[in-house]
Write a structure and sequence with these properties.
84 residues; mainly beta; PUA domain-like fold
């Protein structure tokens, strides 16, 4: 499962996610891993020592600009995984 970190200052996004709402996040990934962030991929959302499981529900969008050499910024929409 791919880990996605939400900054400590972004409590609202994590709360919304835990309440079952879809959230949009931006993630910096190495160019070689872009294809692993596809619609339907399971992810782990990490925020302030807490974790929650979700899945990507949209095709990733490559955001212009680069966060660093060999990296790309992706915009993803994620929904919380349903409990069995």
């Amino acid at each position: 499962m791919k880990p996605i970190s939400i900054s400590d200052s972004d409590k609202i996004t994590f709360r919304d996610f835990n309440e079952g709402n879809s959230v949009q996040v931006r993630v910096s990934v190495p160019e070689t891993e872009i294809k692993t962030y596809t619609k339907g991929t399971s992810v782990t959302i990490v925020h302030g020592g807490q974790e929650a499981t979700g899945r990507i529900v949209s095709d990733p969008i490559v955001v212009s600009g680069t966060p660093g050499p060999g990296e790309r910024l992706l915009s993803l929409i994620i929904e919380k995984a349903q409990s069995a």
